[in-house]
Structure formats: structure tokens, C-alpha cells
Amino acid sequence: MDVKIANVQFQFKKYESFSDFEKQILGIFENVPKDCDYVLFPELMTIGLLTTFEGYENFTSADNDKLHVYLEEYITLFNSIATERKQAIIAGTTIEKEGEQYYNTAYIFDGKGSYAKHRKTHIFPAEAAWKTQEGDVLDVFEIGPAKIAVATCYEIEIPEIPTIYSRKGAEIIFCPSYTFTEHGFWRVRHCAESRAIENQVYVVHSPIIGNIEGSVEPGFGKCSIITPCEPPWVADGIVIESQVDTDDVLVATLNIDTLYDRRANGVATTYNDRFRRKALYQKYEEVMK
Length: 289
Fold this sequence. Notes:
It is built from 7 helices and 12 strands. It is α/β, with parallel strands linked by helices. The longest helix is centred in the middle third of the chain and has 18 residues, at about 180-200.
């Protein structure tokens, strides 16, 4: 089974209103093929909307929670686009408020008028000032033709998360990210490559880019679509990638059946071999505590 994916390298900007943000999104979709099964946007893709608030110039990262006021407009926009185009859209993440708690939440719109969500479970140390709480659910979604999961930025650096996803049946892990530096980008990118190899899954990585005056941290990176490193895929496992810090839409077709074949018959059958010697690992349970 072939699955077609569009991976959006999104650049945040200064906006006068949500309408400006909406126009940017609609413009991007002019370059997204309508036959794509999935479309991915990066983490905190709404971050530029902070510039619509009075006094933005004096904000600190603690003011990121203000993004929650745009949540309903964000949901309406992407749900409408997904339904009209009959595509599953992983619309990056935004700030969600529930009661008095804030979450960094990924929304997955199914193209049929509904959506699921994933709350980031591991907060990067620099996020502590954002006031976001950690989620505690790791779901795999049967949305679109494949079984998919979301590992937001720092989550892809925690090996247990993609392992849980793959054991629950995930075939594609979508990784929206927001990295402020070149070091941060490569940390996420290299981990995404490792997770693809050790779990024999596809990983789609979308870092946000942009740099505007004020308190918003710059976004650095380049999008990529990643496979395990063995035939029939390309040797370095990078199916396609964008240039650094340029607007782009990457499109690639991935075959799901090939994953299962490689897990059973590949050169490196890591999906099975990682658990083949469970008894050995259990001897060292104490050091994992």
C-alpha cells in the first residue's frame, strides 16, 4: 500500500490578525497536492500569532500561553481545509487550555470533520517557562490509510516513546518540532533517524522556521522524510529534505508493505531483534531505575 505525504516547512511571521495567518496557510495549500494522504506542519506553528497582541514587544516566553485564545479559530480553519480536501492534516501543535492547565497539543484532523489530539508528554527544559503541563497518553491513530503517531520534538529524543508507538502498531511517526539553534535541530534530526532504524518505521520531521523581532525564539531547521537505512530505500535513509530555513513543501510516497517485509526479511531486523533477548535486558533492570 502506497501512502503519499506532504511535509510543510513553515515559516512563522508577524501578523496583524488571525486572518493574516489564515491567508498564509491557504497559500501553502496551493502547493500541496490534493492526492496526498497526510499533510504535516511543525510544532507551535501558531507562535507568530503572539505578534497580534498589544505589548508583544515586552513579552517573555511565559506569555506563550496566550496562544490558547486562537485555539477555536485554529481548529475551525484546519478542520475546514481537511474536510474540503479529504486529507488528514497533522496541524503541528498549538497551545491548548483545559481548566487552569496549558498543554502543547498536536491536532490531527481526519478529513471527515473530526480530529484527534496528542499532548506532548516530555517538556524540553527550555519549555518550563511556557507553563505547559505534560500529557500522559501515547496513542496510535488509525486516521487515513496508515497507522500513525505523533512524537513532538523532544519526544523523538526519548527512545521509549517511538518504541511504544511501534509496538502499538505505528507505521509512520510524525515529528513536528521547534528548535531554536542548529545544535537543537540536529539533535532532533539525528534522533529521528535513529528511531526510524531501531523501530523500522517511517519518520516525518517538520521543524518550524522563522526569526522576527521580539521575544519569540527563532526557529531553525529543514524538513525531511526518513526511512530505515537499508535497501530498497536510499542508503542514508533520507528520502527527501528541504534546504535550511526556506519555505517548502516536500512530497514523497512511502510503501507500508515494505516496512513489514523489512522487519521480517531485512538486512537488519531491529524491530524483532530488539526484543528477542528480553531475558538479557531483564538482568539489568536495576540500572534502568
